[in-house]
Write a sequence for this structure.
């Protein structure tokens, strides 16, 4: 039986989908091959014992000299990248125009044309597929390729199983955490503040800000693995999620900026506050980048439930925290709707259902 190839370029994917329940559920249906940056990593080798699991090196495109203008015209990736950049310069609303359903007529037509062209190139064999890079390691063509949405974006070859995706990178957090902490402590002196760093934040950046936060009594929770996440480093899921669940369970409110912690907090019945204001205005996003996030296609549905308190300033954030301290059950029904929209049913079997979907697609093709 041909294996399913799971692409796991980063430690986040290894933690959630290789060490999580998906891999075990998949291997009960088909052999599983996982492409990771370091196949000989001891923590991963332990997983192989007695299981239908094969670890192979993640293929990275070699560095190549810059393309000439003529070569760019015949290459699919520069076309996609150039289209994304033009949309960014002209529209500014990256989230709402590039990813949402509310495209302009011209933009929607261009995206459809790019998608159709990409599919045609794949079908005719004019575009190299990522599966071909793993034939030698696997000994056969995989039954299917599984990946997250952006793993095979413009910097990777496509696959017959994965759609082409246009990606746009945006700069760092627009809200000043230090200013917000000062405002909260000045207004609500009795609260304790915990700042949970992103797993990609190894804790070496912004040392001065971190020192000021700690001087204010702020607890800083580090979540980054010993090795960088982007190179395959990971924290075992039991440890990572145990710490995250504890932090959320004891929180009077979870304050974030378009974070998936919104859903995690809603599952644990904790109030959620969304920061929809920028620390400083930017010419590229005159409406405010944080506000665009709040009403982008993937987040607007959550805001519409009423389960998220959207605040437009630090003062509004203070008032929202005060309201939730006085009534922790406030907006509970909206948070239940968030769980229903994103995680229904929230019974801890997402990995099992995902594996069943992958297996069903291949069975239908056979």
């Amino acid at each position: 039986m041909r294996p399913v190839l799971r692409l796991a370029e980063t430690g986040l994917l290894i933690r959630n989908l290789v060490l999580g329940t998906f891999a075990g559920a998949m291997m009960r249906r088909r052999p599983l091959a996982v492409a990771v940056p370091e196949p000989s990593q001891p923590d991963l080798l332990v997983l192989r014992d007695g299981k239908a699991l094969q670890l192979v090196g993640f293929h990275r495109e070699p560095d190549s000299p810059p393309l000439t203008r003529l070569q760019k015209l015949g290459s699919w990736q520069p076309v996609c990248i150039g289209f994304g950049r033009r949309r960014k310069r002209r529209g500014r609303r990256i989230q709402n125009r590039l990813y949402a359903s509310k495209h302009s007529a011209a933009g929607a037509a261009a995206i459809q044309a790019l998608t159709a062209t990409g599919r045609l190139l794949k079908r005719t064999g004019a575009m190299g597929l990522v599966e071909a890079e793993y034939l030698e390691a696997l000994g056969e063509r995989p039954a299917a390729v599984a990946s997250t949405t952006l793993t095979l974006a413009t910097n990777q070859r496509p696959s017959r199983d994965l759609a082409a995706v246009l990606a746009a990178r945006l700069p760092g957090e627009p809200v000043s955490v230090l200013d917000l902490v000062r405002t909260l402590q000045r207004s609500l002196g009795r609260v304790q503040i915990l700042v949970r760093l992103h797993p990609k934040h190894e804790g070496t950046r912004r040392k001065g800000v971190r020192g000021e936060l700690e001087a204010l009594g702020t607890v800083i929770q580090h979540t980054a693995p010993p090795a960088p996440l982007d190179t395959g480093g990971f924290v075992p899921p039991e440890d990572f999620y145990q710490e995250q669940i504890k932090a959320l369970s004891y929180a009077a409110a979870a304050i974030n900026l378009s974070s998936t912690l919104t859903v995690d907090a809603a599952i644990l019945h904790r109030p959620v506050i969304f920061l929809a204001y920028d620390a400083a205005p930017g010419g590229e996003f005159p409406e405010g980048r944080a506000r665009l996030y709040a009403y982008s296609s993937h987040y607007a549905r959550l805001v519409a439930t009423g389960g998220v308190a959207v605040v437009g300033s630090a003062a509004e954030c203070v008032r929202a925290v005060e309201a939730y301290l006085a009534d922790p059950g406030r907006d509970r029904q909206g948070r239940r709707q968030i769980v229903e929209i994103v995680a229904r049913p929230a019974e801890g079997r997402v990995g099992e259902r995902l594996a069943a979907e992958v297996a069903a697609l291949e069975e239908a093709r056979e």
